[in-house]
Specification:
This protein is mainly alpha-helical. It contains 14 helices and 5 strands. The two termini are 34 Å apart.
Length: 322
């Protein structure tokens, strides 16, 4: 059973990315054979700055390693280091109906806003299909927003198989637990685009400052409050131990506490929760060549598999044996 997922390198991870996605991908590395890659070809549709894209790509690898991706368990690589995927993409592009791609949301949303889209954004789902099919992936863990792309991948693979024989494994999406929706410092969904994030790798002091800024209501000190509906408590639950969480919930129900105390507890719990990852982040950041070695060795393994599948597909549609 092969698990595969791609993560776009678009900047520093926040708590929403971590609890909503990264930690859930990483948890699958133990159960199955896992392939994780940094989707820099996809990021090229939005990041149009040479230095930034290169930096984000290395940073994404460091982040994943710091957050627990074990390169002994999972194969970690950069998408563009496996050129077989781009070759396979062309092969899939022929035979992909325009209408299928016109319905895909990234392109559709951009068009609806009156913005001009390029051919890269339009064919983004075909490259994603190539990513998945190149490794005979069975399971693709993704957020809700990516389910449409997995369906497109199944359509493309299904019609290729129908025409040329059983070449591709049809993947299934594994939708990540969306109950892990993390609120931001303003109570809305945490997102880079809302400027309300708590970043995983901020230094403790900077993180403490951010936490102190979280918006709270003007509840009188003596009133009790339902913890589950409170942003501070929701964030605290993510980083506290079970005992700490229960004690805090009891405090909310009892009343007579100030939000300042909760913020301090949240900052302390967050510092402890991310301490190990932060130390690993410092460690990997100090030896980028070791990270590059891991990526190179991952790409080598990925290319072996992708080469096999590409050959199978080429042979099936008449590109070999002339
Ligand atoms: P952003 O909204 O900050 O741009 P992305 O869209 O890049 O985040 O999200 C990358 C991954 O992180 C997606 O799988 C998404 O589902 C997950 N994610 C982002 N924000 C949150 C959040 N607030 N709660 C839970 N998961 C999130
Ligand atoms: N499009 C995905 C995202 O934005 C990233 C991605 C690229 C991906 N290729 C993939 C995810 C293949 C799963 C499988 O999050």
């Amino acid at each position: 059973m092969r698990v595969l997922s791609g993560i776009q390198p678009t900047g520093r991870p926040h708590w929403g990315n971590f609890f909503g996605a990264i930690t859930q991908y990483i948890a699958l590395q133990d159960a199955d054979q896992a392939f994780y890659f940094i989707a820099n070809l996809h990021a090229l549709t939005t990041v149009r700055d040479k230095e930034l894209l290169a930096q984000y790509t290395l940073d994404a690898a460091i982040d994943l390693l710091a957050l627990g991706l074990d390169p002994e368990q999972a194969v970690l690589f950069v998408q563009s280091d496996v050129p077989e995927v781009s070759e396979l993409c062309w092969l899939l592009m022929t035979g992909t109906p325009m209408g299928l791609l016109e319905r895909c949301h990234a392109y559709k949303d951009k068009k609806a806003k009156g913005l001009s889209a390029d051919a890269g954004l339009f064919s983004y789902p075909v490259l994603q299909a190539a990513d998945i099919l190149a490794y005979d992936s069975d399971t693709v863990p993704v957020g809700e927003d990516q389910v449409q792309h997995i369906e497109v991948c199944r359509d493309i693979a299904g019609s290729f198989n129908h025409k040329f024989g059983e070449v591709f494994v049809l993947p299934k999406s594994k939708v990540l637990d969306s109950s892990a929706r993390v609120p931001g410092t303003d109570g809305e969904k945490m997102s880079k685009s809302y400027n309300n994030t708590l970043d995983v790798f901020d230094a403790p002091k900077a993180q403490r400052k951010q936490i102190m800024r979280i918006a709270t209501d003007s509840r009188p000190m003596e009133d009790s409050k339902d913890p589950e509906t409170d942003v501070l408590y929701q964030l605290y639950s993510l980083v506290a131990t079970d005992d700490e969480r229960e004690a805090m919930a009891a405090k909310y129900r009892q009343g007579g506490f100030g939000y300042g105390d909760v913020k301090k507890s949240l900052a302390n719990a967050a510092e402890a929760f991310f301490a190990e990852s932060r130390a690993r982040h410092d460690d990997w950041s100090a030896r980028p060549d070791d990270v590059r070695d891991i990526l190179a060795s991952g790409a080598k393994q990925a290319r072996t598999k992708a080469g096999e599948v590409l050959h199978r597909a080429q042979a099936a549609c008449g590109l070999k044996g002339y």
